[in-house]
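Explain this record to help learners:
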Amino acid sequence: MKRDKPSFLLQKLIGTATAVLLAAGLGTAPRAEAQSAYPNKPVRVVVAFTAGGTTDILARAVTQQMSEKLGQPFVIDNKPADGYTLIVNSVGPMAVNQTLYKSLPYDPLTDLVPVVQIADVPATTIEEFIAYAKANPNKLNYGSTGVGTSSHLSSFMLSKRIGAETLHIPYKGANALNDLLAGRVQFMFATIPSVISHIRAGKLRAIAVRSLKRSRSLPDVPTVAEKGFAGFSAGSWFGFFAPKGTPAPVIALLNKSVNDALPSLEAQMIREGADPVGGTPEQFGKFTRQEYEKWKVIVRDSGATAE
């Protein structure tokens, strides 16, 4: 079967996956002989979400620093686009969708090149929540941003680990959070940047985080793992990827520019609910493969499918 070329492949990716694209003009990856001048023109940063979402916030913060370091303007455009692309991706399209969908026009583990991980985005007390959930089967509804999303699978994973029967109510996007705030659903996992203002305002109660380590944004909130569920980890994460075939020196330059930017963004990212990560392309590639193996099992156990 003929493989899609990277630019066409990434156009298809937008329709099925959470994605942020960096598009610089039209065409393919820079030629090897032009690497020393990269980037030699303005970079258009395409966010396939409305402004203000978690991925949009992270993309704007990081690319502002990249613009200063690399000497070219990075202009945010909140809509899908064609062309010469990099991609800022997250756990769903990189680690979940391969199992969730019967077929995909791309393989994120082979058709994309890891550049650098940006952030790991990692209800009274967790003990009280677990006790109530187990004592009241099917009386707790949890919201999610859709079947097969990280918020759905994280809650399914928690319910299974604690031995509680809960009901999944899928929504489209922000409607899940709106119904949580209104009390129509009783709990959900959400990325910290999307809810931290509500937590600080006392509208939501944070009882646990789903990462292995406590979030620096909410240091007093325990992890699920430390409350007797060793190994529980279902955090969200975000990072840059490039199309297969992007020259190694360009990958190295982009990786360095993001790593150089993260220290100056640390306070802002923690304040907004994300923990900076950084690292090498090789480390991010290994992490992505591990995430795929983990979520493959969870998707299959949940029975979730998507077309």
The domain at 6-121+235-302 is CATH 3.40.190.150 (D-Maltodextrin-Binding Protein; domain 2).
